[in-house]
Write a structure and sequence with these properties.
heterodimer, A: alpha+beta, Rossmann fold, 2 domains, six-stranded mixed β-sheet, 21 strands, B: 224 residues, MetI-like fold, 10 helices
Amino acid sequence: MSVELELRHDGPPLDFAATFPAGRITALLGPSGSGKTSILRAIAGLLRHGRQMVRVDGEPWSDPRTGWRLPARLRPVGLVPQHYALFPHLTAQGNVEMALQHLPPSLRAQRVRRALALVQVEELATRHPRELSGGQKQRVAVARAIAREPRLLLLDEPFSAVDRGTKRSLYVEILRLHEALGATVVVVTHDLDEAAQLASHLCLVHAGRLLQSGATAEVLAHPCCEEAARLLDIPNVFDGQIGTADAGGQALMRWGPHTLRVADRGPPRGHLRWAIQPGNVLLVRPDKPWDSHLENPVDARVLERVDLGSDALVWLTPAGLENVRLQMRLPARALRRFPVRPGQEVTVCLRAADIVPLRTPGEQGA
Amino acid sequence: MDWQAILLSLRLAAVTLLVLLPLAIAVGWWLAVTPFRGKAWIEGLLALPLVLPPTVIGFYLLVAMGSHTWLGQLYERLAGQTLAFSFTGLVVASVVFNIPFAVQPVQRAFEAIPPEIREAAQCCGLTFWQAFRKIELPLAWPGILSAAVMTFAHTLGEFGVVLMVGGNIPGETKTVAISIYDHAQAFDLEAAGQMALLLLLISLVTIAVSYGFVARLMQQRRAA
């Protein structure tokens, strides 16, 4: 089921409009306090104030023009709140059974067992929430949310309180569940890796507004503006000047003493903010015969190198741009073959396709 | 030992509890979940019996139950006797005087339920009454139990309001507290002492058992 949303309220500020595609996992990614949870609560029918338009598969759930608001209990929604909100006086089984009160008692037990089995916690059926670990609570909360076979599953930072190993196995569970149920899933998170691993559709939210939405891979590769780049944890955001195009019609950008080809569909001439992912800054090995095939080569000096397990972060200062810090991420195995150390002169390649022009704040509404 | 007074006090405490507890649950829940302007005034009004001298409350209740007021006249027409100096009048006074002892623990208990729990109940598709009966009441149970025990014990020992509104009619309004006072005035210290000790024991046992029970429940909840 597709979800169309238009939300507005003043405290905290929210001015959000988006459509979540049917049958897919959409991640709402944004910093704490950006309004992600309010968006989820509006879909679930729990947000009381503000102007809300929620339409699901064309059917109005909230309509500010008519004042219609489908009560939360009648919405076919399964919600997993951030801290799970399990009923502390009931066992895992009792918690799941609470979502099945519309069924005759004889049918409930079977549905409870099935829901608990789907999240692999059948053996915990008789335990109370106080006897469960964070990951187990999370699974029971998911079982409760899916027991009613909702058309829409809403997960509010569901993995924030579990350790890394549990988190990874829960990602797998959620993806399996999504496969099995075919429900539309909306996940709220401030964890970029989580969003990238779980969601096929990504919405970037900042200060109550939608910055960008689209296929996850597309959004991750092409942030639309500086805020989006910051949300995607891209530290390489710089100023350039778009000048005349080259003989082939490709736009050229001046970056200090360097001239870079830009693949974007013709950014306007003049000042341009642009970004490049650290992983897309490519180290040029001097022993390879690149000749003229080398795209946008930039000479730089290594300032610092920090090894982070399987990766290393390297900070560079490009020639003629003493105040600029360009971050490069390299696999550790590449560094073993071609080690770099502070003070070393290197050449890096910034491919035209990886240079992402950003909208300036004034253009963001465009 | 004035068994008639003791039984009357127990009956008064039980009837007060039966009348007041459902009201306290309704009002306590409403105050816990409803933000509105002037709430502090309502809460202050309900807490007044905590700070006013019992004789002041007793005086106003006595005036309100008099045969010149609509309440007094209505009761006289229905029951054929005055509301003041009757067991029913005593129940009314006892209910009024115990309002803060019943409402406040219930209100705090409902306030302690996280809003996410109520929202989770809504998202489970529970109706208001289902959520209230299956989620909120069991979670607020320690507070409700405290309210019941406080009300019961407080009614057993109440003196000033009872004396003002009920007087000292054996079998009708003479409670154990009044009886102790009577016996002490008559220098029958042995009877007064026995009844005081019985009252002390009943109150202590009731409160200790309920506190222990509530503490155990809260410990389990905190662990959750």
